Amino acid sequence: MAEENPHISTEDARAGSTPHIVRYVLGISLALVVIAMLLVLWR
Fold first, then answer.
1. Which spans are transmembrane here (predicted)?
2. Residues whose CB is less than 8 angstroms from the CB of residue 10 and which lie 6 or more positions away in sequence, other chains included
3. What is the model's pLDDT at position 17?
4. Are 17 and 11 a contacting pair, CB within 8 Å?
5. How many domains, the chain?
6. What was the pLDDT predicted at 18?
7. pLDDT in tens, 1-43
8. What pLDDT does 28 receive?
9. Is 23 a member of any domain?
10. Is residue 25 in a domain?
11. By residue range, what is the domain housing residue 25?
12. Given this model, what pLDDT does residue 12 score?
């Protein structure tokens, strides 16, 4: 007697949506770090 393995979508399993704001946060913070390091090295 095999149990059925129901397929649950990723969004249903997380009980929410996955916005892509993380990409923007990572991109902006990377740019700020690069600018800060350039300022420190240029000084």
1. 21-42
2. 18
3. 66
4. yes
5. 1
6. 67
7. 556 778 887 777 776 666 788 889 999 999 999 999 999 998 8
8. 97
9. yes
10. yes
11. 10-42
12. 74
- Alpha-helical segments (H) within 1-43: 10-14, 21-42
With 0-12 CB in 10 A as exposed, 13-18 as middle and 19+ as buried, what is 8?
exposed
Contact criterion met (CB below 8 Å) for 2 and 8:
no
Q: Can you read off the two tokens belonging to residue 10?
A: 């990723």
Long-range contact list for 8-17, CB < 8 A, 24+ apart?
Answer: none
Give, in degrees to the nearest 5, the angle at Cα 32 between 30 and 37: 95
What is the Cα–Cα distance from 43 to 40, expressed in whole angstroms? 5
The pLDDT value given to residue 16: 64
